[in-house]
Amino acid sequence: MEVVLLCAYFAVLALLALSGIHRLHLTLHALRRPRGSRVENPDPPAEWPTVLVQIPMFNEAFVAERVIRAAAALRYPSDRLRIQILDDSTDDTVALVNRVVADLVAGRAGPRIDIVRRRDRRGFKAGALAYGLERDDSELVAIFDADFVPVETFLERLVPLLAADPVLGLVQARWSHLNRDMSLLTRAQGIFLDGHFAIEHAGRDYAGLLFNFNGTAGIWRRRAIDEAGGWRADTITEDLDLSYRAQMAGWRFRYEHEVVAPAELPASWTAFRSQQARWVRGSVETARLLVPTMVRCPRLGLGQRLEALVHLGNNFAYLLMAALAVMLPAAVVLRDQLGWRVPGGQALLSHLDVTMLFAGTFAMVVFYGVAAARCRAGWRILDLLYALCLGCGMSLGNALEVVRGLRSRRSEFVRTPKQGTQRGRRAMATYRSPVKVDLVALELLLTAYYAAGVVYALYFQLWGALPFLVLYLVGFGSVGIATVVETTGRPRSRVGAPAKEAT
Fold it and tell me: Which CATH number fits domain 48-312: 3.40.50.2000, 3.90.550.10, 3.40.50.2300, 3.60.140.10?
């Protein structure tokens, strides 16, 4: 039995090490010049194409006014621009949106602003976007979630790229973070997202591989949406679904690293967890839906298909991380009791063990370090180390979402509340994210498990095991304990708002 456990343990380590090597591969692509012919900095078009700006929202009273005013301030010929507020709200946001739009259109020239509301919220965000498109025929469609604050030059900088390249179906901008320095949690999230954009998006784009629209801060060509089959609510990551369908239909995507769209990061633990759960489950749903078609798509080369499989299956790594979380302390104890030590008799991990654990960890450090440098984001080594711990701590919850994604059918959204200019308990209490009590209990149990493992390693001087045991200990401890503290110390809300749906 002991040998079986150790063999499984080393197999998991090997697969995670391969995942780290793949991240290093993307990092090299991100540092190279883009392949193929790309029009850089094209001149403004002789005639600016018509643009529809869509802002989907649901119960976003703290951030709705900010995004609407930012959209109205976009620099673009007003007769070629239209703004749709796709408001599915059921709370005070409705009156706020009415007031802000009335203020903007009263007595001043500017783009047309329409408030679009539906009788029901069928299809959630995907349904709202499709409903809005049925009422407009603009050539290009820009989308901003409610927590974004687009800069005035956003359209001026990206629209010429689409006007100069008729095969370009989407341009995706990079996200920046309005509240990055608010807490250790938000700084860690900033590091995660920098890696996603500056390395994953850039690396795939520059190598001519497929990548995805992030649901916001991008501009679509309307024809690309239509020819791909339009927005569908078959998964809770409708952006990933449409992205792959459009690229399989022959449309090219482009990532613009230097065009930045500021946004707000989830400031509470429950909001962060619900966002991660939605992203992970939705990506698995999309993979299940699209992989059979994608692997047979004649438009894609072999390299594109292989990388797309890795991309769509990336979150399955959480299953490996969760398995490692269960096995690591036990494997340390078993190897020590079996006498698996390095030459000289020192109580250390085996060379193979250290090599694979270090390979995976070192790859992540390089991946996120290069991303931070490319994004010119001020960060400390403590932030990066905590981000690694947080990734370990989220592994169990995200692994469960992978399993749910394999089984789910048309999952329901869970909204990710944002605070806007509000701070403190009132903002956190107004829009609650659901808490999975059983999951938090398991995380606390694993915290105790790893605390025992650290004590054992210290007592028997297993110094090589300590860094990796501490990664999981800090991760599970911070995720579980912070969630308990936040949810038990939060007052009941005086503002009733449904907790479902995120935009």
Answer: 3.90.550.10
Supply the pTM of this predicted model: 0.91
For 105-121, what is each residue's pLDDT tens digit? 986 778 999 999 999 98
For residues 174 and 59, the answer to whether their CB atoms sit within 8 Å is no
More confident residue, 187 or 333: 187
Is residue 125 within 8 A of residue 412, CB to CB? The reply is no
Whose CA is closest to 308, among 228, 201, 242, 209?
A: 209
Domain regions of the chain by residue span: 2-27+315-488, 48-312
Q: What is the pLDDT of residues 217-267, one digit of tens each?
A: 999 999 999 999 999 999 999 999 999 999 999 999 999 999 999 999 999
> What integer is the mean pLDDT of 26-45?
85
Exposure class string for 238-247: b at 16+ Cβ within 10 A, else e:
bbbbbbbbbb
Pairing of strands 168-177, 218-221: antiparallel
Percent of the chain with pLDDT over 70: 87
Interatomic CA distance for residues 484 and 441, integer angstroms: 9
Q: Are 444 and 481 in contact (CB under 8 A)?
A: yes
Dihedral, 289, 293, 294, 299 alpha carbons, nearest 10: -150
What is the spatial distance between Cα 204 and Cα 373, in angstroms, rounded to a whole number? 18
In the set 87, 147, 194, 239, the catalytic residue is 239
- Residues paired with 253 in a beta bridge: 170
Q: Name the strand (E) or helix (H) holding 283.
A: helix 269-294
Identity of the highest mean pLDDT range in 153-157, 360-364, 422-426, 497-501: 153-157
Rounded CA-CA distance 434/206 in Å is 39
SS (H, E, C) 55-116: EEECCCCCCHHHHHHHHHCCCCCHHHEEEEEEECCCCCHHHHHHHHHHHHHCCCCCCEEEEE
Q: For residue 410, is pLDDT > 80? A: no
Residue 234 designated active-site: no
CB crowding 94-122: b at 16 or more within 10 Å, else e: bebbeebbeebeeeeeebebebbeeeebe
The catalytically annotated residue of 88, 145, 147, 241 is: 88
Minimal CA–CA distance to 278: which of 131, 444, 404? 404
Active site residue 120: no
For residue 118, which of 58, 200, 191, 164 has the smallest C-alpha distance? 58
